[in-house]
Amino acid sequence: MRTREEQLEEMAATISDLASNGLCVSYELIKHWVDQAEERARAECAADTRRLDYLDSGCGGSEWIRS
C-alpha cells in the first residue's frame, strides 16, 4: 500500500501533466480520485481485519503465535 504522500505526489503530477496539455481538472474529478483512494484504503483495512479474525479464531493454524 502506498503512503498518502506518495498518492498525493502522483495526483499532483497527473494534474500538472493534464494542465500542461491544456486540460482542465475540476474539483469534482479530484474529489472522485480522493474518494476512490479512501474506498480502496477502507477495503484493504477490512480485508486485513478479516484475515486477523480468521487467525485469531484458531482456524488459521496460528497456535505458534500464542506462545
Automatic annotation (TrEMBL):
Tell me the protein's name: Uncharacterized protein
Q: What species is given as this protein's source?
A: Acetobacter pasteurianus subsp. pasteurianus
